[in-house]
Amino acid sequence: xxxxxxxxxxxxxxxxxxxxxxxxxxxxxxxxxxxxxxxxxxxxxxxxxxxxxxxxxxxxxxxxxxxxxxxxxxxxxxxxxxxxxxxxxxxxxxxxxxxxxxxxxxxxxxxxxxxxxxxxxxxxxxxxxxxxxxxxxxxxxxxxxxxxxxxxxxxxxxxxxxxxxxxxxxxxxxxxxxxxxxxxxxxxxxxxxxxxxxxxxxxxxxxxxxxxxxxxxxxxxxxxxxxxxxxxxxxxxxxxxxxxxxxxxxxxxxxxxxxxxxxxxxxxxxxxxxxxxxxxxxxxxxxxxxxxxxxxxxxxxxxxxxxxxxxxxxxxxxxxxxxxxxxxxxxxxxxxxxxxxxxxxxxxxxxxxxxxxxxxxxxxxxxxxxxxxxxxxxxxxxxxxxxxxxxxxxxxxxxxxxxxxxxxxxxxxxxxxxxxxxxxxxxxxxxxxxxxxxxxxxxxxxxxxxxxxxxxxxxxxxxxxxxxxxxxx
Length: 473
Ligand code: NAP
Known about the structure:
Layout: H1 2-9, H2 12-32, H3 36-59, H4 66-86, H5 92-117, H6 126-153, H7 167-187, H8 193-211, H9 219-241, H10 244-267, H11 272-277, H12 304-312, E1 316-321, H13 323-328, H14 331-343, E2 347-352, H15 362-369, E3 377-379, H16 380-383, E4 392-396, H17 405-408, E5 427-432, E6 452-456, H18 459-472
NADP nicotinamide-adenine-dinucleotide phosphate binds next to helix 9, helix 13 and strand 5.
């Protein structure tokens, strides 16, 4: 009886059915990730799919080394679960970088192990060697590049661009040629292990040298790009190992990572080569940008009490959150203020720019944490037509995503970037600590608009003070 059950579970057809169920769940889970309402469920569904895929792989006949497999699962679980539970929302990009890097590293190591097991791929068809070597190069780049991205975001290494100067592009090209050259030698029949170690090392150096010159603030885009790379390398490993679930999962990660990278680059009005070329977002001002204090207009400042009066007499208020709200962790205070205004019959909406903050969905995540109803979160295309009939736009720690220069000044580095048209509302209140620029390092014309009033201070305390004033009215 036990033998029949075991042979059924290890039957190739049964394992294939498990894989089909697994990647159907991946795809269904991914579809659910499209909206904040269904995203948590989508994540859980995809996780169930992954559990089925892992179980099916472990059932594959010939599987051995159970001690090592169990050790790996125990270590992974012991590290992964507490890390995922403890991570702060603002540290999520580096967490993703770390997990993504581990995936790339695993792919690179599998390519090396397969090299050893198959006598330098000599017992395998050519396509297996090519797929494994592709996985070795891209996986190694992804592992090391992701580690640098993690280090920059975690401030373990400086966020500013670190470059080799003019030699940078030459060194990168030389490393790429070396990695590909050694891989070609292996595919052509060389079985010396030094060659695969050389491939892994050259790709490792390349991963470091490609990411080090990119500024810390561009890391979310880089992580998304490396995530796409890891997906492609995992798909290549799936081809080499004849594992359908790995091919499908790898392609899903590769495709979704590529789409996310392109969307982020478009929303920042930057090209992907421009981001990878580095030198932007390192904290310094951008060439040609206007530094703080160089504008010749007048800035009007206001007080929490005046802001409270304006807000209390409005019919519609649009809250525009940005990176400063995340830094100040002001989301709960913002929700309190919105509740207070709603109790007075004022309609409150939130304008969400796709690249507000420092990671995709940054504002959605923070506002969801503060229990802001999803239907009040309006995407850029939906809220922009509403600004002309908005009485007060309350900009909380957002800067670049509201800068009208993106529409009006062809010399601006952000010219062409889609923005939230807050300057079209009847009046604008901006909460930030100073006249300092945001991520792009440029001045914001909005602050000199006669309709705009600046409330200088930390977002959390300023919003708290406004709420107290509103309550006192
Ligand atoms: P931003 O342009 O970087 O401006 C944020 C503003 O918040 C700053 O001007 C700062 O001014 C203010 N601030 C900081 N700490 C504050 C605090 N404690 N209280 C109040 N204000 C505070 O932010 P954004 O408008 O959200 O735009 C995002 C930028 O990041 C865009 O340029 C985007 O391209 C880029 N980016 C986004 C992503 C993404 O995936 N979301 C990824 C990479 C890059 P003070 O110092 O004067 O307070």
